[in-house]
Write a structure and sequence with these properties.
The structure holds 2 protein chains of 2 kinds. Chain A is α+β, with helices and mostly antiparallel strands. Chain A folds into 3 domains: about 1-35 and about 485-635, Aldehyde Oxidoreductase, domain 4 (2-Layer Sandwich), CATH 3.30.365.10; about 40-145 and about 210-255 and about 265-295, Alpha-Beta Complex (Aldehyde Oxidoreductase, domain 3); about 300-475 and about 635-790, Aldehyde oxidase/xanthine dehydrogenase, molybdopterin binding domain (Aldehyde Oxidoreductase, domain 4). Chain A is built from 20 helices and 33 strands. Chain A has a 7-stranded mixed beta sheet with strand order 4-8-2-16-13-14-15, sandwiched between helices. A 5-stranded mixed beta sheet of chain A has the order 1-30-24-25-26, with helices on one face. Chain A is globular. Chain A starts with a strand and ends in a 6-residue tail after the last helix. Chain B is of the alpha+beta class. Chain B has 2 domains: about 5-80, Ubiquitin-like (UB roll) (Roll), CATH 3.10.20; about 90-155, [2Fe-2S]-binding domain (DNA polymerase, domain 1, Orthogonal Bundle). In chain B, about 30% of the residues lie in helices and about 15% in strands. In chain B, a hairpin with a 2-residue loop joins β3 and β4. The radius of gyration of chain B is 15 Å and the shape is globular. The chains are: A alpha+beta, B alpha+beta. Chains A and B meet through α1 and α18 of A and α2, α3, α4 and α5 of B. Bound molecules: FE2/S2 (inorganic) cluster (2 copies). One FE2/S2 (inorganic) cluster sits at the interface of chains B and A. One FE2/S2 (inorganic) cluster (FES) binds near residues 43, 48 and 60 of chain B.
Chain lengths: ~800, ~170
């Protein structure tokens, strides 16, 4: 196998088959449309047992004792285990963060429960019905403790500690400063203050979490079948925490029914099931139910941003100071500073601002732990764009003009942002202008004014999105977070010419089986039908960093493309030798090798592949047998894409409802592999943003009980409440990535939240209302209108 | 609790089983009949992923007990495409319009759309949006699903399906 870590990006264009950029129908659809997908809970093996978890009914309580005798006596129950048992079988998770206290999470808690839904015991039984019955019979003796439920109050003296291993509930407080913030504020004509708070919410993949763990006693190997976005990293963690060697663990991620950042960590329930499969030597499956998913998987977005902007009278932004808060919940699945810090370094958005200081605060509370939900920094665009709007309002300037005055243009790049990130080939200003070419703002202002005259409230929200898509290993190094951003691929042209590709990214709807087939077929001069893409199985796929952020296109498809180019080069070297023609006179089209300008092909890709395996003595002396390439690729420190969103809403005074009347996105994700799939990512992302702006919220009552544990209480957008979204692509290739691919998929969420919230704010302009808290559901809107005395009775 | 024998027709074939009275139809279909295309997204009757046709009516199999289906005829997602895997127009349109991403909601969407088009072969966009409002999809943003159903209606999906669905 050829192994390459080629630092030079090969910008050579493949056969030019036009496969990159084609809206190829998806290879995965046939099985998914006919009911033949294979999701975790579809797996069934002989002798399989089922797990159910006993969960804390309290937000904060000491575990005094657990009596499982009644549960164990129930026919069909095989085992009941607690944190004490699991502490002997597994090691705890320790999350470290530079300059802060490490946080420790036991497999199941032994001393106390820290949130409503915290798992305290696991029942293993012959079927799920019995397992759930038995879970009800487990008697846990609790001593109630006072819950910590408000992040700003978490540090009050006398507040009980959520994590007794920490000195304070305020886990992190860090300030970062760039430029000369004092002078910027001293020179300002005005200092304008804003604040933005996002509600707590959760990921809600329609398929919940789950696992089927199988212990092969003869081989002493664990197979862990579970929808995992980062299967290799999960394998590493599983091996460590189970005390196995990493070559004793195989993680297989089957079809995943949506993930959105939820299915990254090794969850405690999953580890418990794996440990018990080994201990009992029985396959065990666990599929969480919706209540568990809503209460006890991961939550996100419980954060707020307060901004002070130093501005000149002409609208130039001289400097920004920001105070950021995040409620991290009860345990750390990620370094606590990780998500909120992204809000910090992204907050300057599309704007040239040199003087900047931000402080992050991360509080630990008695709520479900925070995770990375698609666009973990999602609040950021609303905060930036909302601040620019406020600046314009307070200075009596046009908000479009204030944006344009401060925006970074293509000609300003390469541009290094105050926190040190390099922007290249971004059309922040140009895409904004394009959006306003497509949406007639003047015309809208006229309709808005006449609608106001009739008592109707229309509003428009403009949001320019800066989306960090692909993090290279240099980013991880610089941030102090553990991990890498490189990716790995194996491309095998088999003896008959059929192509198998293995890449370390893992799909949960992004269509990688199709897009990777496109980039590989293009590089190798083959067809997408001839390329099979195999993902998610750590026994056959090279070690990759999986799917998180929006790295699938630039890192995942990028490395597959590079590996296929390496294979192509070998094919052409062999063909050149065989045909006695120079290598640069050759090309491959649909699997046939041509001397350029000749009508007849003289050799096929399959002929060369056959030679590589079955007749290697015919190869040039410098070529090794076989036609398999393993390649890794480490993308630049950080790759960005950008977009501009325009949203028009009507707010109904009498009901407080918000209806979205029109929605535009101008997206620049660089070179697109499959525009149809990108459009799908935009629409899905925007609608997730709409959900956050208008509907969704994970709510705790005063005692810390989660009161949103069903789809009756937790509302995600439905088909009858979302708009059509009009999309226009600008394709400005990134100069530093394979084929100029930038990637995207989180930006649409950022833009969705921002443009909807700003449109509502615009609709309510002049009524004395400040829209600073999500979601904007009818009762909040009615509250605003009532407070402003502007509600119709 | 005692198991009860049930007999039904599933995707045109005889099926029977011994089920406890509390067993959900969704579990019976998935676990006992091994037809795992019917998905369970909530068991709360809210997401629509588990939708099947029960005597021609779209029902949520997670809200139905298996014993209630005794004697009934059921069509699941596995019974929608032709026997050679040829896609039903609704399925084909979803593929053409990229009406699915992860595909977890898709079986429920397909079955719901088939029932909708049978009852209303030329639905308005609003009728499609309302008809699909009980099928949660977290991936697509719905637009492509709606467009797909419009496309299926345009090619006369309601009459071109096999007998069970049309
Ligand atoms: S699983 Fe039946 S409606 Fe959700
Ligand atoms: S396609 Fe993923 S939930 Fe609909």
């Amino acid at each position: 196998m050829t192994t390459t870590t080629d630092p030079v990006i090969q910008l050579e264009v493949g056969s030019g088959g036009g496969l990159i950029g084609a809206s190829t129908p998806r290879k995965e659809d046939q099985r998914l449309l006919t009911g033949h997908g294979q999701f975790t809970d579809d797996l069934h093996v002989r002798g399989m047992l089922h797990a159910a978890f006993v969960r804390s009914p309290h937000a904060h309580a000491r575990i005094l004792g657990i009596d499982a005798s009644e549960a164990r006596a129930l026919p069909g129950v095989v085992a009941v285990v607690t944190g004490e048992d699991l502490a002997k079988l597994t090691s705890p998770m320790v999350v470290s963060q530079e300059g802060a206290h490490p946080m420790v999470m036991e497999t199941l808690p032994t001393a106390k429960v820290r949130f409503n839904g915290d798992p305290v015991a696991c029942v293993i039984a012959v079927d799920r019905y019995v397992a759930e019955d038995a879970a009800e019979l487990v008697d846990v003796d609790y001593e109630m403790l006072e819950p910590v439920l408000e992040m700003h109050a978490a540090t009050d003296p006398g507040s009980p500690l959520v994590d007794e291993g920490l000195p304070s509930n305020l886990h992190t407080r860090q300030t970062k400063s760039y430029g000369d913030i004092e002078t910027a504020f001293a020179n300002a004509d005005r200092v304008i203050e804003t604040s933005f708070s996002s509600q707590r919410l959760t990921h809600v993949p329609i398929e919940g979490r789950g696992v089927l763990a199988i212990w092969d006693k003869g081989r002493a190997e664990l197979s862990f079948h579970s929808g995992q976005q980062t299967a290799h990293v999960t394998r590493t963690l599983l091996a460590k925490r189970l005390g196995l060697s990493e070559n004793q663990v195989r993680v297989i991620s089957p079809d995943i029914g949506g993930a959105f950042g939820l299915k990254i960590p090794l969850f405690r329930e999953e580890l418990t099931v794996a440990a018990m499969a080994m201990t009992l030597d029985r396959p065990i499956k666990w599929a969480e139910d919706r209540a568990e998913n809503l209460m006890a998987s991961n939550h996100a977005r419980d954060d707020s941003v307060s901004i002070q902007a130093a501005v000149a009278a002409d609208g130039t932004i001289l400097g920004i100071k920001a105070e950021l808060w995040a409620d991290y919940g009860a345990y750390a699945f990620y370094p606590p500073s990780y998500m909120i810090d992204v809000v910090g370094w992204l907050l300057l958005g599309a704007y040239k601002i040199e003087n900047y200081e931000y402080t992050i605060n991360v509080a630990i509370t008695n709520k479900c732990p925070a995770g990375t939900l698609r666009a973990p920094m999602a609040i950021v665009t609303w905060a930036t764009e909302g601040t620019v709007e406020r600046i314009a309002d307070e200075l009596g300037l046009d908000a479009v003009a204030v944006r344009r005055r401060n925006m970074i243009r293509l000609e300003d790049q390469p541009y290094r942002s105050a926190p040190g990130y390099l922007y290249e080939a971004l059309t922040l200003r140009e895409s904004f202008d394009e959006a306003l070419d497509r949406f007639d703002l003047e015309q809208f202002r006229r309709s808005q004014a006449s609608a106001r005259g009739e008592g109707r409230l229309l509003g428009v929200g403009l949001a320019t999105v800066l989306e960090p898509t692909t993090y290279g290993s240099a980013w991880y190094k610089a941030s102090g977070d553990e991990g890498s951003g490189h990716e790995a691929a194996t491309v095998k042209v088999e003896p008959t010419g059929a192509i198998n590709v293995m890449v370390g990214i893992i799909p949960s709807g992004q269509g990688y089986e199709t897009t990777i087939a496109q980039v590989v077929a293009e590089a190798l001069g083959s067809t997408t039908d001839n390329v099979a893409v195999r993902l998610g199985d750590t026994h056959i796929v090279p070690y990759g960093m999986g799917s998180r952020g929006s790295r699938g296109a630039a890192a995942g498809n990028g490395v597959a493309y590079l590996a296929a180019l390496t294979a192509r080069n070998k094919v052409l070297r062999i063909a050149s030798h065989r045909l006695g023609v120079p290598i640069d006179s050759l090309t491959i089209v649909d699997g046939s090798i041509f001397v350029i300008d000749e009508a007849e092909s003289r050799l096929s890709l399959a002929d060369v592949a056959w030679m590589c395996y079955m007749d290697p003595t015919s190869l040039p002396a410098t070529e090794a047998p076989g036609l398999e390439v393993h390649q890794t690729y480490d993308p630049p420190e950080l790759t960005f894409s950008n977009a501009s969103h325009v949203c028009v809403v009507e707010v109904f005074r009498d009901t407080g409802q918000v209806e979205i009347l029109d929605y535009h996105v101008v997206e620049d994700a660089g070179t697109l592999i499959n525009p149809m799939i990108v459009d799908g990512q935009i629409r899905g992302g925007v609608v997730m943003g709409i959900g956050q702006a208008l509907y969704e919220e994970s709510i705790y009552d005063d005692a810390g009980n989660n009161v949103t544990s069903s789809f009756v209480d937790y509302l995600i957008p439905t088909a009858d409440c979302v708009p059509n979204i009009r999309i226009h692509h600008v394709e400005t290739p990134n100069p530093n990535t394979p084929r100029g691919i930038k990637g995207m998929s989180e930006g649409p969420v950022q833009g969705g939240i921002a443009s909807v919230a700003l449109a509502v704010s615009d609709a309510l302009k002049g009524l004395g209302v400040t829209v600073d808290q999500l979601p904007l559901h009818p009762s909040r809107i009615l509250g605003y209108l009532r407070a402003a005395g502007a509600q119709d009775d | 609790m005692k198991a009860r024998a049930i007999h039904l027709v599933v995707n045109g074939e005889q099926a029977s089983g011994e089920v406890m009275p509390r067993m959900l139809l969704s579990d019976f279909i998935r676990d006992d009949l091994a037809l795992t295309g019917t998905h369970v997204g909530c068991e709360q009757g809210a997401c629509g992923a588990c939708t099947v046709l029960l005597n021609g009516r779209a029902v949520r199999s997670c809200l139905t007990f298996a014993v209630q289906a005794d004697g009934a005829s059921i069509t699941t997602i596995e019974g929608i495409a032709g026997p050679d895997g040829e896609l039903h127009p609704v399925q084909q349109a979803l593929r053409d319009r990229h009406g699915l991403q992860c595909g977890f909601c898709t079986p429920g969407v397909v079955v719901t759309a088939c029932a909708l088009l049978r009852d209303d072969p030329q639905p308005t966009t609003q009728a499609i949006r309302e008809g699909l409002s009980g099928n949660l999809c977290r991936c697509t943003g719905y637009q492509s699903i709606i467009e797909a159903i419009e496309q299926a209606a345009a090619v006369g999906a309601s009459t071109s399906a096999d007998g069970t669905v049309a």
